[in-house]
Amino acid sequence: MTANGIFQIALYFLVLLALTKPLGLYMTKVFQGERTWVHRLLRPFEVALYKLCGIDETAEQHWTRYAGGILLFSIATLLVTYLVQRIQQWLPWNPQGLGPASPDLSFNTAMSFTTNTNWQSYVPETTVSYLTQMIGLATHNFFSAAVGLAAGIAVIRGFARHSAKTLGNFWVDMTRSLVYVLLPLSILGALLLVSQGAIQNLHPYAKVATLEGAVQTIPQGPTASQEVIKMLGINGGGFFNANSAHPYENPTPFSNFFQILLIFIIPAGLTYTFGKMVKDTRQGWAIFAAMSILFLAGVFVTYPAEQSGNPILTKVGIENTATATQPGGNMEGKEVRFGIANSALFAVITTDASCGAVNAMHDSFTPLGGLVPLLNIQLGEIIFGGVGSGLYGMLLFAVLSVFIAGLMVGRTPEYLCKKIEQKEVKMAMLSVLVAALSILGFSALGSVSHFPKDGYINPPGATTANLNNNGPHGFSEVLYAYSSGTGNNGSAFAGINANTPFFNTTMGLAMFAGRFLMMIPLLAMAGSLAAKKQIPVSAGTFPTHGSLFVVLLVGVVLIVGALTYFPALSLGPIVEHYLMQDGKLFSLLLNPGVVWG
Amino acid sequence: MPTVTEQQPIAEDVTLLIPKRAMRARPLFDPPIVRRAIGDSFRKLHPRLMAKNPVMFVVEVGAVVTTILCARDLATSAAIAGFTSQITLWLWFTVLFANFAEAMAEGRGKAQADTLRKTKTETTARRIVGGKTETVAATQLRSGDVVLVEQGEIIPGDGDVIEGIASVDESAITGESAPVIRESGGDRSAVTGGTRVLSDWIRVKITSNPGETFLDRMIALVEGAQRQKTPNEIALNIVISGLTLIFLFAVVTLQPFAAYSVASNGSGTVPTVTVLISLLVCLIPTTIGGLLSAIGIAGMDRVMQHNVLAMSGKAVEAAGDVNTLLLDKTGTITLGNRQAVEFIPVGPVEPNELADAAQLSSLADETPEGRSIVVLAKQQFNIRGREVAEHEAHFIPFTAQTRMSGVDLDGRQIRKGATESVAEFVRAHGGKVPAELLEITERISRSGGTPLVVADRSRCLGVVHLKDVVKGGMRERFHQLRTMGIRTVMITGDNPLTAAAIASEAGVDDFLAQATPKDKMDLIKKEQAGGRLVAMTGDGTNDAPALAQADVGLAMNTGTMAAKEAGNMVDLDSNPTKLIEVVAIGKQLLMTRGALTTFSIANDVAKYFAILPAMFAATYPALAHLNIMGLRNPESAVLASVIFNALIIIALVPLALRGVKYRPTSAAALLRRNLLIYGVGGVLVPFPGIWVIDRLLGVLHLA
Predict the structure, then answer these.
(1) What is the pLDDT of residue A289?
(2) Three-class SS of residue B618?
(3) Domain assignment present for A471
(4) What count of other Cβ atoms lies within 10 Å of the Cβ of residue B571?
(5) Cα distance between residue B147 and residue B157, in whole Å
(6) Could you tell me the pTM of the whole model?
(7) In this complex, which of A430, A535, A539 lies closest to B483 when CB atoms are compared?
């Protein structure tokens, strides 16, 4: 590690810390329907939208209706996206004359964007028309984030309210998410990115002559506006294949800093919103602290692992230490402009949050460096996490921690003055179970299934034939794919040809389970909590705002996560790490014709 | 009842809320109980019974599978047969150990039920029908029948005394050998079936049908026959069942993951089913799964050992959650009687003269107040009670009209009583009441005491200060309750002034003065509306609605049937202070569950480090880096983990039965302490444990 690298990481964290309270306060006001200084400008839009859609702003919803609204909205937009892909050949804005996407790919892509995952099994340039890009995919970047934010706010209300039947109104929360949070921040952010050199145009692809005299085609497009919601909405689907490693998406070190700030800003702010809404900001800071500890721990495992590089290369005489003129360490798959510290930081942030944007190839990380992103996803995308979903995911663990250890103070476990009883525990366990079943179950299928070669389900034959790598790394690729899908992350360990009916379908199901089978039990829990009476705080109350609770929460997240995934991880990155230490290498499986998605 | 100790209202060690002595205490491992529990452990292997406990059911299914594999290995004389058979054996032990813990917890209750059953002998009853008595079997009595019970007879069923008064031996129920008085009317009218009339006779109106009597319910309760899982236990069961499912996923999917690794690496073998089952059993929370029901039963049993009969486990659990304790002043906080604490003379009167006069006037006074004056005079001035017969003394008893009592002797007319009455008496004899006297009485009243003015004809001698005496150690106890976050509210019929004085002396948080049953009810409802759980004690019929409303209602056994029916606990010793102990036991029960859950989950960390490198020793020798315990070989590592997992259950049986150590401190301090012991300890302990077993297996050439 270099001093410069550590300084940049520290600076990032301090800026995040400074922004948490103002944004949290702003969101509190927005979702509680209080006026802010932007209301004069934006309130007319909000009112107009309600009029247009026939929404009664004051109508409150029971959790079942709230969840119903989420499902209705999500399934409707899912179907539209699916249909548009299937019939794009008959629709306008398809100058390339692209044919319909296959049913499994259309399903996968529609699910991916609806669930805020943005796993891209398709190759944009050769699969989707401009129309599909615009109404099928781009809208979801906003909608899926707004759905998550609304659900997060509803869950907070579950903790904040008492003796209440309702959790708010989904359509109102969704509208406010868009009008007051996502759209204004996106517009400002896009301008800032443009100032750094991100492109925003409708020009045709540029053709330039290279120094060798060859002709290179350089794609153009409205990048900056897409880029900002990619990060802010924690979507992660890049405008270009190289994602945030591409100079048009992420031109400068400052834009890089700004992008990773955009990823964490809403989830971090939500911790403050949470504290504010439950009327005890210490509770919000405790959640923030637990997230921060897990985040920094991840950074300070990945960064040194990447910086120390590969001992096998050192042995053959390749300089591995950082000097004034070279970064040292493992630079494979990293953008030279960003170097090791910023690549490691980006990788940890994008997997802590369910973003999935990348500025370096995770597949090329050292085993330990790659272990952290994988584990981050498997822990449930709760280290700041997705928009809204990160907070409710962490609250789920808070409820579990309180239940497991809370009994030790001799009282029925309580969290935020609410008793944690059967129903809450059942819903929390259901969410954890679904995640484990989806990640482990699909990975098991994906690592040993055999299908007829050149058949419909999986043309390469055995699922292992879809992999680029042999040995533990190949296994990590499968495990990473399903973890990424279930965690709604969308980043890939690459190296796996996932565009086959088998992978498209199973990934689609994993994404659905990871999104809605997590969100709905949490809303049910919130509904049950909202109906409860509040118990007054006393000396006998389990304290959930102090350092002890933060340590406990971190411990439960790590132990439950580690206990569930440790066996699988030990056959992937962990053994790979020891094998690398021992100097053992695996052959690369070169699958001709594999196009990575 | 085997052993009986006298009532002891206050723990000797005030730092402990649960007194060390326990009524009817049996040694933890009473040989007959252990013998019976061992038998029961095998009976409980029936799948229908095991299915109630999902975690242990998974272990049993695993054991059945390895038994089949073991039979196959033995039949084919496979080299692995020794390993498979040892694993099988220890898996069965794991199940049996858990069953043993439950059987031990139940056994203590069962032994008690047997003792109770012996007292429930066939009795006959003399039923009064239309003025005549007829002899019928006790089992034929129905609610509403009236029976006559005379000296030496056993009361045939629960009921209320409607006529007569008798002393009754209730030791069969309470274990208390001293007889109690039962009389018609008032709050001492309830009698319990199975108790014996020692003297006189009573007519009893039967209030329960056969099979529903107090004794029947008591037997069912201590036996655990009607035991239902408590809300907390159900929630905890959901968590550990959920974790079991998660680990099932983790282990089941490990097989295909291993298959991939073996195929990809081209070396080693996929772990056998026996090894996978071993890993599963080690990972699922068998420690808490095996001990959970034992903890619940033992908690009920601990309440029983304090001679409190809890009608449900839910009530005991609720006791741990209580936020507010409503305590009656008299008998709970104070000794129940006012006592003389000071002699305050007026004017030129010497203190010993006042004491002497006060004592003289009280010699025939049999009230506790009167006796306390005699005692105080003796203590302070060494004035002994005299034989006054030779002095031709004439005692004047207290009446509601005169509001004073006294003695006429040797020409003196000594009176003691209420200020106004004695002042009247003095003035009537031509004396003057000094202003100083009124100041003194005023001051005493304000401090919550009762002034008793003493005069000799026209001379005012002074004032005796009578005071409610707060039981020793109560202040400390209330302080402990406060640190635990429990508010205490004193309920009294006294005026607010007196109530405030005693409340501050006893150190309670709040008081309700001049309380009527309705006030009490309103207070409970108000507390509950604020989300608080309320506990109270009561014995009278007019307490019944409040007892029913409270979350924990501890009825006194001496109380009326209505009160006993309304509450969810009955204190057989009729000691209201015991409510505090019940709360502590409830907390201890919840703490024990939490501690063992945390311990159980924390244990898993070490087991991964033992089993995973062993599983993949052939496929990925590099994973030996994870073998940080340096276990000798894969078979030994797996076996040692399984053995440790089984032994930890049996090792924790005493803790489950006795409950974790509990000191009243704040939740934060408790959490810090318990997390350190059971959380951090739970992570660390298995490492040396598994290592030692691994070495022993080597020494014994078992693996």
Answers:
(1) 98
(2) coil
(3) no
(4) 28
(5) 9
(6) 0.88
(7) A539
Distance from CA of A416 to the nearest CA of B (A): 13
Q: Are B146 and B206 in contact, with CB atoms under 8 Å apart?
A: yes
d(CA B568, CA B566): 7
What is the four-CA torsion angle of B262, B268, B270, B275, rounded to 10 degrees?
-150
Contacts of A440 (CB under 8 A, 6+ apart): A564, A565, A568, B249, B250, B253
Whether A327 maps to a domain, the answer reads no
- Expressed as residue numbers, the domain containing A193 is 20-252
Which of A409, A418, A464, A566 to mutate to probe the B interface, most B CBs <10 Å? A409
Whether A533 is in a domain gets the answer no
Judge: A405–B598 Cβ closer than 8 Å, yes or no.
yes
State both tokens at B369: 């107040």
Look at the block and give the residue holding tokens 């498209």.
Answer: A504
Q: Do A534 and B616 touch (CB under 8 A)?
A: no
Chain A contact set for B674 (CB, 8 A) = 405, 408-409
Q: What is the pLDDT of residues A69-84, one digit of tens each?
A: 999 999 999 999 999 9
The highest-confidence range among A402-416, A560-574, B278-292, by mean pLDDT, is B278-292
H/E segment holding residue B168: strand B159-169
Q: A405 is written with which tokens?
A: 């250890």
Q: What is the count of structural domains for chain A?
A: 1
What does the alpha-carbon distance between residue B55 and residue B241 come to, in Å, rounded to a whole number?
A: 6
Residue B79, Cβ density class (10 Å: 0-12 exposed, 13-18 middle, ≥19 buried):
exposed
Closest in B249, B260, B279 to A436, CB measured: B249
Min Cα–Cα distance to chain A from B271, Å = 13
Closest CA to A150 of A120, A170, A164: A170
Q: Which amino acid, residue B363?
A: L
The answer, yes or no, to whether residue B401 has pLDDT greater than 60, is: yes
pLDDT confidence band for B119 (50 / 70 / 90) = low
Distance to chain B for A560, nearest Cα, Å = 9
Per-residue pLDDT at B129 exceeds 90: no
Written as six digits, the tokens of A264 are: 């964490």
Which residue out of B169, B328, B573, B604 is catalytically annotated? Answer: B328
**Would you say how long chain B is, in residues?**
703
**B304 to chain A, minimum CA–CA distance in Å?**
19
Q: Are B320 and A412 within 8 A, CB to CB?
A: yes
ipTM over 0.85? The verdict is yes
Contact A448, B258 (CB under 8 A): no
**CB spacing of A405 vs B258 below 8 angstroms:** no
Question: Which phi and psi (to 5°) does residue B438 adopt?
Answer: -65, -35
Number of A/B CB contacts below 8 angstroms equals 224
Instruction: Give the model's pLDDT for residue B640.
Output: 97
B242 CB neighbours in chain A (<8 A) are 429-430, 432-433
Distance CA A147, CA B315 (A): 43
- Predicted confidence (pLDDT) per residue in A467-485, tens digit: 888 889 999 999 999 999 9
Interatomic CA distance for residues A228 and A108, integer angstroms: 24
DSSP H or E segment with residue A81: helix A63-86
Residues 6+ apart with CB under 8 A from A461: A450, A451, A452, A453, A454, A455
| Strands A215-218 and A206-209, bridge-based pairing | antiparallel
Q: Which is it for strands B534-538 and B324-328: parallel, antiparallel or unpaired?
A: parallel
Q: Does the annotation mark B539 as catalytic?
A: no
The reply to whether residue B250 touches residue A533, judged by beta carbons under 8 angstroms, is no
User: Inter-chain contact B260–A539, Cβ cutoff 8 Å?
Assistant: no
A2 domain residue, yes or no: no
User: Would you state the pLDDT for residue B154?
Assistant: 86
- Pairing relationship of beta strands B196-206 and B552-556 according to DSSP bridges: unpaired
- Which H or E element spans position B343? strand B334-345
Taking CB atoms and an 8 Å cutoff, what residues of chain B touch A481?
none
Query: Residues A394, A385: contact at Cβ < 8 Å?
Result: yes
